[in-house]
């Protein structure tokens, strides 16, 4: 096709683009993927039976707050990396806040618990499976974000892949709260975070291949 | 026909607001810019230039949501063009080592120099062809007067006079614009 025809052809489909369309598109991808992960939990794992009562306690909201705020901060970074002229990243330090807060809670928890119980508290019932659950549940969310990126223009693919992986991992952990009965902060800080870090590394690994455009 | 940053940016924003005419005008204005961009960088690969131009136009169109209305348009455009070129070089895996390219492509002053080049192109367009060519050869491409003269098939003094007159005219125009 010659260039003139191409220009005419492209201009024919000029649709208005909203100001926040990058953020909106990423949010849609993440929400759609998150729905997929939630369905996966319902089918394969089942909700925690005491979800209703757990939602009245603080530990549920501690876990949820940690993972969800991490997911939001990660998505903000992803949105910056989705533009070709991303330049210096702003707000990266926001990612540290949830970690520091949760570490603080964990420290208080340890101070209040006799040291003989520390190990049991740290390992909980599910430390072996938890990181892998988070990693698996991040797959549908990562796929949702890949859909978002089809209209976006990252130029630092490794960084964008890592940011998308981090968003997917953190949001997968948020969804995993529906199933996971663990209550201690140091458990969440270690094993949830490990799953999230694995998702980030995987995103970094596949970013250059899957985010090319 | 004007290809300044403000003009392109205004067209882009109108296009984002759904104005198909502005969007078409923008894409048309980008064609010569992109041709220049790729021709300078893909020396000896003329077949690829038009492919790259088209591929970049498609990317500009389909991924225009990533342009932030508050930021310079040319910087965004060249970021897209540069990405497309690095991707192209990586894909064909030939020409020069890519690390080398990456380095000078991402040099901090790259965008600034591209924009400056646009301005120079603009200014030179207002001159008679001969004067513009003489200035481009001796002052921008760095040829000597003798080289420029033999390339054009004219005398050395002819080149000197053209450069002199052209620069004088440009000076007058720039000063006039500043006043």
Automatic annotation (TrEMBL), chain A:
The keyword Transmembrane helix applies. InterPro entries: NrsF (IPR009495). The keyword Membrane applies. It comes from the Bacteria. Keywords: Membrane, Transmembrane, Transmembrane helix. The chain crosses the membrane at residues 26-48, 60-79, 91-111, 131-149, 161-179, 185-207. This is DUF1109 domain-containing protein. The lineage of its organism: Bacteria, Pseudomonadati, Pseudomonadota, Alphaproteobacteria, Sphingomonadales.
